[in-house]
Specification:
Elements: E1 4-14, H1 20-29, E2 34-42, E3 47-56, H2 58-69, E4 74-80, E5 85-86
Antiparallel strand pairs: 1-3, 1-4, 1-5, 2-3
Length: 90
C-alpha cells in the first residue's frame, strides 16, 4: 500500500570533506522523508558523522542510503524498524 512507511536511521561516516556538499544535496533531495538530522564533526580525525531519522517507503530509504554510500569517502548504513507504519490521516 502506498502509505506504508518504515522508520529508519541512516548513519554516515564521511572521511572525504569534498563529499560533504554532495551529501547535503542528497539529504536536501530527500528532505520530505527526513524527521531529524544530527551531525558530529570530528575535526581532529578528519571525519564527520551524520545520523538521519527517516519516515519513508523502504525503497526510498534504501535508495538514499545507497546513493550516499557510493560517494567518495562516505560509508552509509540504514537500520530499519521491524514493522511498517501507516501515516495517520488528519
Amino acid at each position: 500500500m502506498e502509505n506504508e512507511n518504515r522508520i529508519a536511521i541512516i548513519s554516515m561516516i564521511i572521511a572525504n570533506e569534498a563529499s560533504v556538499p554532495e551529501v547535503n544535496g542528497l539529504l536536501h533531495e530527500y528532505n520530505r522523508f527526513i524527521l531529524s538530522r544530527m551531525g558530529l564533526p570530528l575535526r581532529e580525525r578528519g571525519l564527520n558523522i551524520i545520523s538521519v531519522v527517516a519516515d519513508a517507503p523502504a525503497d526510498k530509504i534504501s535508495a538514499l542510503s545507497g546513493k550516499l554510500g557510493r560517494l567518495a569517502g562516505v560509508t552509509s548504513k540504514a537500520v530499519y524498524s521491524k514493522t511498517e507504519t501507516k501515516k495517520k490521516e488528519g
